[in-house]
Specification:
Blueprint: E1 6-8, E2 20-23, E3 33-36, E4 42-46, E5 50-55, E6 60-65, E7 72-77, E8 83-87, E9 92-96, E10 101-106, E11 117-124, E12 127-132, E13 135-140, E14 146-149, E15 164-169, E16 175-179, E17 184-187, E18 195-197, E19 209-214, E20 220-224, E21 229-233, E22 238-242, E23 259-264, E24 268-273, E25 277-282, E26 288-291, E27 306-311, E28 317-321, E29 324-329, E30 334-338, E31 346-352, E32 357-362, E33 367-371, E34 376-381, E35 390-391, E36 408-410
Parallel strand pairs: 2-34
Antiparallel strand pairs: 1-36, 2-35, 3-4, 4-5, 5-6, 7-8, 8-9, 9-10, 11-12, 12-13, 13-14, 15-16, 16-17, 17-18, 19-20, 20-21, 21-22, 23-24, 24-25, 25-26, 27-28, 28-29, 29-30, 31-32, 32-33, 33-34
Length: about 425
C-alpha cells in the first residue's frame, strides 16, 4: 500500500498474551480471500461457508451469502460497486446484497463454461477478466456475454498456458498473467497480443509464477516456485535473475528457489520462501542475509515457511509464516514474535490506515486484527454458540511494553 504520511511508529514488545476472540460469522476458520471495498468495508471468503462482511459499529463479522457448496475463493468489486465472487467449482457469482444471496452468472451447467475462478480483475467498466484452469475469460457484466482465450500451441501471440494462477494490473495499466506451467504472460495497454516470459524465451528461465510485487519506477518483481525471483525492467524489457547458488548460500544470491512473498521498501527487498525462511536483500550492495527460526531464540521467525509480507502505513514490516506472525525490528536486525497470533498459518496481511487496523488472514485460526487505537489484538473465529457477540479470552490487555515513540518514518511503500 502507498502512503506519504509521516507518523509515530507503534512498537509491540513481546508479551505472552492472548487475543480477544470475536465470532467470525462463519462456521469456518479457513479464510480463502480478503478484500476491502471502496467504502473501506472488509469482506472475507471461506470455501466452507461463503462470504462474510465486517460490521465496524458492532466489531464483528456477519455471514452475508454462500454455502459450502458454493466454494468461494476470490472476490472483486467493480467500478459500479458490484461485488463478484469466484468459486472453486461453480464459476462466477454476483452478490445480491439486498437479498443476501449469490446469483449465478457463469456456471458449469454450460459445459463450455469455467469451473474454478482463482482471480478476478476489472479491465474496463463493464468488463471483468477471470483466471481459471480453462484460460483467461472476458465477461461482460451488463450483457452477460463471455469468451475464453485459450492457449494455442504454435501461436506466439496467444496465452501459452491455460492453468492461470493470478491476474495483476501494474501502474501503467498492463496486464500480467501468472500461470502454472507457462511462466508470466504480459499484455500491454497498447498491444494486441501477449508476450511470454519463461524458460527458453528470455532471461526469466522459470515456468511456475507464484507472486508479483511492485518495484521502483513502475518495474516489477516476479517470484517463482522453480527458479528464484526476477527483476523486470519495463523500459529495457529485460529480466535480471536472482537464483540460489549451487551448494551453500554465499550472501550474493537468494537462499532458496521457491519464492512465495516479495516486498520492496526504500533500500531493502524482503523475500519470503517455502521452507527457506526469509531473505533480506540490501538493494544498494546486492548482499543477501537469510533468517530462519531458531528454537533457542525468541527473536527469530516462527517458521521457515513465509507466505505473506506487508509494510503498514507506519513503516513497520510484518512477516506472515505458517506458524505465526513476526514483526521486523530494523534496529536490531531481528524479529518480534507476536504471541497473540501464534500458531496461525498466516496467508495474507492487509493494512487499513483509515481505521488504524492491521488485518491478519489465516488458514487455520480465522482472522486477527491489531487495533492500534486500543492497543490490543482481536481474533475473529467460529464459535459454537453463534451469538455474534464479543467474547474475551484474556484480561491481559493491553500487553505490557506497548509504547508510542516519537520517532517518525516516511512510509512510501514498495
Amino acid at each position: 500500500m502507498d502512503s506519504d504520511d509521516e507518523t509515530g511508529s507503534l512498537l509491540l514488545r513481546p508479551a505472552h498474551g492472548e487475543a480477544d476472540t470475536i465470532y467470525l460469522g462463519t462456521d469456518s476458520e479457513f479464510i480463502a480471500h480478503i478484500m476491502e471495498d471502496a467504502d473501506g468495508t472488509l469482506w472475507i471468503t471461506s470455501t466452507e461457508t461463503g462470504i462474510s462482511r465486517y460490521q465496524k459499529n458492532k466489531d464483528n463479522f456477519i455471514h452475508v451469502a454462500g454455502t459450502p457448496e458454493d466454494g468461494i475463493i476470490s472476490l472483486c468489486q467493480d467500478s459500479e460497486g458490484n461485488i463478484w465472487a469466484g468459486s472453486s467449482r461453480h464459476g462466477l457469482y454476483l452478490l445480491d446484497r439486498d437479498n443476501q444471496k449469490l446469483i449465478p452468472r457463469l456456471t458449469p451447467k454450460n459445459r463450455r463454461s469455467i469451473l474454478q475462478i482463482r482471480s478476478i480483475v476489472e479491465r474496463t467498466p463493464g468488463e471483468l477478466l477471470l483466471a481459471s484452469d480453462e484460460g483467461l475469460t472476458q465477461y461482460g457484466t451488463h450483457s452477460g456475454e463471455w469468451r475464453t482465450l485459450k492457449a494455442q500451441p504454435g501461436n506466439a501471440d496467444r496465452l501459452n498456458d491455460n492453468y492461470l494462477q493470478t491476474l495483476f494490473f501494474n501502474r501503467e495499466g498492463a496486464l500480467w498473467v501468472g500461470t502454472y506451467f507457462g511462466g508470466a504472460n504480459y499484455f500491454s495497454p497498447e498491444g494486441d497480443n501477449f508476450r511470454h516470459y519463461h524458460r527458453g524465451t528470455c532471461d526469466m528461465d522459470a515456468r511456475i509464477i507464484s507472486v508479483m510485487a511492485q518495484a521502483d519506477g513502475n518495474n516489477l518483481w516476479i517470484g517463482t516456485d522453480d527458479a528464484g525471483f526476477f527483476y523486470w525492467n519495463r523500459r529495457e524489457n529485460s529480466f535480471r535473475p536472482y537464483r540460489p547458488a549451487n551448494g551453500q548460500p554465499d550472501g550474493r544470491t537468494p537462499s532458496y528457489h521457491n519464492i512465495h512473498a516479495l516486498l520492496q521498501t526504500e533500500d531493502k527487498l524482503f523475500v519470503g520462501m517455502y521452507m527457506g525462511g526469509l531473505d533480506i536483500m540490501d538493494l544498494k550492495s546486492g548482499q543477501f542475509r537469510n533468517y530462519m527460526p531458531s528454537p533457542s531464540s525468541p527473536r527469530s521467525l516462527y517458521s521457515s515457511g513465509v507466505y505473506a509480507l506487508c509494510r503498514d502505513y507506519q513503516g513497520e514490516v510484518w512477516i506472515g509464516t505458517t506458524g505465526g506472525l513476526n514483526r521486523y525490528l530494523p534496529e536490531t536486525d531481528d524479529f518480534e514474535r507476536v504471541y497473540e497470533v501464534h500458531p496461525a498459518d498466516v496467508s495474507c496481511i492487509v493494512d487499513n490506515p483509515a481505521d488504524s487496523l492491521l488485518w491478519i488472514c489465516s488458514l487455520n485460526q480465522g482472522m486477527f486484527c491489531l487495533d492500534r487505537r486500543q492497543h490490543q489484538w482481536l481474533q475473529y473465529t467460529a464459535e459454537d454458540n453463534h451469538t455474534g457477540e464479543r467474547r474475551s479470552e484474556s484480561n491481559r490487555f493491553p500487553p505490557t511494553g506497548w509504547s508510542l515513540p516519537a520517532s517518525t518514518h516516511n512510509t512510501d511503500s514498495g
